[in-house]
Design goal:
The structure is a homodimer.
Chain A: H1 8-11, H2 13-21, E1 30-32, E2 39-42, E3 46-55, H3 67-84, E4 88-98, H4 104-121, E5 124-132, E6 138-146, E7 161-165, H5 170-179, E8 182-184, E9 190-193, H6 201-212, H7 218-227, E10 230-236, H8 240-251, E11 253-258, H9 266-274, H10 280-285, E12 291-296, H11 301-310, E13 315-323, E14 328-332, E15 335-338
Parallel strand pairs in A: 4-5, 11-14
Antiparallel strand pairs in A: 1-2, 3-6, 4-6, 7-12, 7-13, 8-9, 10-12, 11-13, 14-15
Chain lengths: 360, 360
């Protein structure tokens, strides 16, 4: 029995690998699981592959993210990408870079979250890689999925309407709450409200969960593909403004956003209002909401709403596409102004890169 | 035109992504390449997936590895894993964690190597991920391949013989040469011999290349599968002793290694001899030779040699398997002694983790 606070340097790579492998169930269609040179599994004719990583000090802080939630999120951000392609997630590898003084309990709890989220999503973990690092923790997931008709970022046409699922701004508000001392427990319960009173507990919990344990509309995206309703789509991970501009660039269209229509998250709005601010900017530019942004022909809206209704998922028409060149316009009543994206970008020194989680 | 020494922090993530994407050719069978939420490509019924990463300060040093060779190696270590499963490599994603002060030329040259190696191996790069990091560079590749009959680590049987391709110890010797000041140029030519004279140039070049730009027998491994000759196999990445013990554990057999038979790399041997040492330990325990270690029935050796002959690839019988429990024995003439693996393990504080490349 190894004590939970044992540094992984005392255990070593092979023992840690065995510890991890012993926990990973054999998934459906998996011919070779974790523990060989590569995993082998049965696939359909069209395979999807995505990779996304969480870097300590950039995407998360150890003091802010319980390892279990970090494990869940590391898979979720990839699940969201596969969903955005209208795909079914199938098999994942986990590549970890870990400092040697990390307690083994951190890795155990990280895998609690990874395995739990994998089971929820029907994904088989099929291996990965462990490496030492003299620096921040890196959790890099590669996720393979399947799609009959992948939904691309290109394909949107002028005249189509823009639809977004769920609400926007909660994840960015959650990031602000973390910096104000609010915390979730490993179980995803409210552990500290920070500067907030118990009266705001529900809002604080909601926004912290949006940031630390996001729940993208995975099943909805899949159903969407089966009914071939959308022309183009992507997940809102960097922020609506920047992600929408990507869609415009890939489809060579421009977009007009209706400011009044934006589904600003009501909890985020209440917390921002209490601080004399407006959550509109969070909804417009804030990162990591992991909702789906879709371009559809307006005569398909009814069918789209029917499908979303199965999961009680709000879908909101937030604007319309016009011919290119790629550009964004914000419509407030009669006023139409150019919209400059302010989404998160890595590396930019003016955005505080490398020192904090993505800016809201 | 962006100057080569421009820090990537001045360029930003989206621009750097565009710069990379503009260089990536569309591969065969690729339906959606880089630039969408996930890649989509046509696959056969059985898909392989592996991931392996190179971490600065652990697997490489910036002063020792020209970025082009680093890019080549980042793909090669994954190609070796797919080859060890007797698979054909097909599609790869590249996940980079980069500090903001890194010059853009580093990323350009890294991709020179990645793209060149991908073209050599018939692999399509289909996307990836960029993240900032406040710390070491991380290059993480996920590689998808195909196999009709994957060659596993399990499946070896008592009585079978052990065969290894190529020579062993050159990569570990190359690591020692780097610490003695020897260097390769970005083109893989000898730039500095370090403490060595010109008379040793050929040996120094050979060992540096083995360390910085390894060339696993990829096509051989593939042909092997077509002829169904091996019972089990893996690539020698952590060191023969440790990797062989893995094979024994997975197949529940023990192994007897014939010390005299080990194909010690002759260049590594000459350099070690000049320093009054024996390269045998490098061949036995040294990491990163990326040769293939195979268990085969002895009556298949001739057929195996025929196939290896196509690529002028030496194959050497280095020992035999016996019933379990998993253990290693070293045979020197009449003497039979237990062999304790001394292969590289991450995290182990007694192995100098996090401060240097894998120990030889």
């Amino acid at each position: 029995m190894i004590a939970a606070d044992t540094p992984i340097a005392e255990i070593g790579e092979r023992e840690l690998l065995r510890r991890i492998r012993a926990r990973i169930p054999q998934g459906a269609g998996v011919v070779v699981g974790a523990g060989d040179d590569a995993a082998a599994f049965e696939t359909g004719p069209l395979t999807l592959l995505t990779t996304d990583c969480l870097v300590e000090g950039v995407h998360f802080r150890r003091a802010w993210s319980p390892p279990r939630l970090l494990g869940r999120k590391a898979l979720t951000v990839n699940l969201s990408d596969i969903a955005a392609m209208a795909g079914v997630p199938r098999h994942a590898t986990v590549s970890l870079c870990l400092p040697g003084d990390l307690p083994v309990s951190f890795v155990d709890e990280l895998y609690d979250g990874l395995l739990e989220r994998a089971a929820e999503a029907g994904v088989a973990l099929v291996g990965g890689n462990l490496s030492a690092i003299s620096g921040p923790i890196v959790v890099d997931v590669a996720l393979v999925g399947q799609a009959d008709r992948p939904l691309r970022r290109s394909g949107a046409r002028a005249g189509e309407i823009l639809v977004v699922t769920g609400t926007l701004g909660a994840a960015a508000a959650g990031l602000g709450l973390l910096s104000q001392g609010a915390r979730l427990s490993a179980e995803g319960q409210l552990e500290a409200t920070g500067i907030w009173t118990a009266a705001s507990a529900a809002a604080v919990l909601h926004c912290l969960r949006a940031q630390l344990d996001p729940a993208p509309p995975l099943a909805f995206a899949r159903a969407l593909a089966e009914h071939d309703l959308a022309s183009a789509g992507l997940d809102v991970s960097d922020g609506l403004s920047g992600d929408l501009l990507e869609l415009c660039r890939e489809s060579d269209v421009s977009a007009r956003l209706d400011a009044a229509a934006l589904p600003v998250d009501p909890y985020a709005a209440s917390l921002e209002r209490a601080q004399g601010r407006d959550a509109f900017r969070l909804a417009l530019h804030g990162a990591e909401d992991y909702q789906q942004l879709l371009a559809i022909a307006s005569d398909r809206l009814e069918a789209l709403r029917d499908i979303a209704g199965v999961w009680d998922l709000p879908v909101t028409v937030i604007g319309q596409l016009a011919p290119g060149p790629p550009a964004l316009w914000l419509e407030r009543g009669e006023e139409l102004t150019p919209l400059v994206p302010d989404s998160y970008e890595h590396f930019r020194s003016d955005r505080g890169h490398g020192t904090s989680a993505p800016r809201a």
